[in-house]
Structures are given as C-alpha cells and as structure tokens.
Amino acid sequence: MAFSAPSLKGRALRYLAQREHSRAELERKLARHAEDGPDASAAERIARALDELQAAGLLSEARVAESVLAHGARFGSRRLRQTMQSKGLAPELVASTLEQARSTELERAREVWRRRFGSVPADAAGRAKQMRFLAGRGFDGDVIRRVVPSIGAADDGDPELD
C-alpha cells in the first residue's frame, strides 16, 4: 500500500511540529513541493494553506519571536536581530522583542563570559580574545566592555565581576 505525498498543509504541520516557523520560512520550504494546479498557482495554494493554519492559531509570528528569544539566551541583541530578520518577521515585532532582550543583555553576556572563561585575562591578548568571542555572539561593545574585566581587575575588587 503506497501513501500519497502529503498536502501542503500537512507538510506545514510537520514543520511546525518540529519547531516554530515564521510564515516566510514556511513559504520558502513549501515552495519546493508546490506545483501550479488547474485551480490556483503554487503561491496561491501555499498562501491558502498557511492562512488556514494561521486562522487555527497554529502559525504565529509572535511565538516565533518568543522562541528566538528563549533559545537565544547565549546571544546578544545584534545576533537576535539578525536571526529574526532572516526568519522574515515584521520589523515592529523584531523591535519589540529586541527591547525585551536588551533588558537582560548584560546578565546574559556575563553568564556567557563566565561559562566560557570565568577568569580575568592574563594579558591584553587574552582580553581581546574574550572580547572578540562576545562580539561574535552578537553582544554590543558597551556591554562587552562592562563584562570583560580589565587586566588586574581581580586584585582591585572590581564590582563588575559580582
């Protein structure tokens, strides 16, 4: 007994069962499997399937943004912005989500630094390495300067390490 290929809506549900997807992501993924039919073009068939999922509450851009924020605890606001923009989220939603993330960015950067390094750098090269690491994770420069201790900071009781 052979099974027929899943419908576009079925494929979208399968993708959504794995993780939250934005509408733009699902459109890209479903475009590989959609064909023009006698009643509608491939783009119209995809839009119809996604509209049904959105009406049922199974497709939500806000949940995608929350998911990025929850899984992005190791990343700074620049990296989170890039991730949300690549998912095709609305600029207003990206801005509001980033505002939430900025309130905890210093704490997240300190935790990432502590887990990766946890000690004051021995020299300027070590400090630069730590700063590059945090910059690669998408943290802003002012946050990085507050997190990465200066050389000799352990001796003078720098409050930034608390």
From TrEMBL:
<dbReference type="InterPro" id="IPR036388">
    <property type="entry name" value="WH-like_DNA-bd_sf"/>
</dbReference>
<dbReference type="InterPro" id="IPR003783">
    <property type="entry name" value="Regulatory_RecX"/>
</dbReference>
<keyword id="KW-0963">Cytoplasm</keyword>
<comment type="function">
    <text>Modulates RecA activity.</text>
</comment>
<comment type="similarity">
    <text>Belongs to the RecX family.</text>
</comment>
<protein>
    <recommendedName>
        <fullName>Regulatory protein RecX</fullName>
    </recommendedName>
</protein>
<feature type="domain" description="RecX third three-helical">
    <location>
        <begin position="105"/>
        <end position="148"/>
    </location>
</feature>
<dbReference type="InterPro" id="IPR053925">
    <property type="entry name" value="RecX_HTH_3rd"/>
</dbReference>
<dbReference type="Pfam" id="PF21981">
    <property type="entry name" value="RecX_HTH3"/>
</dbReference>
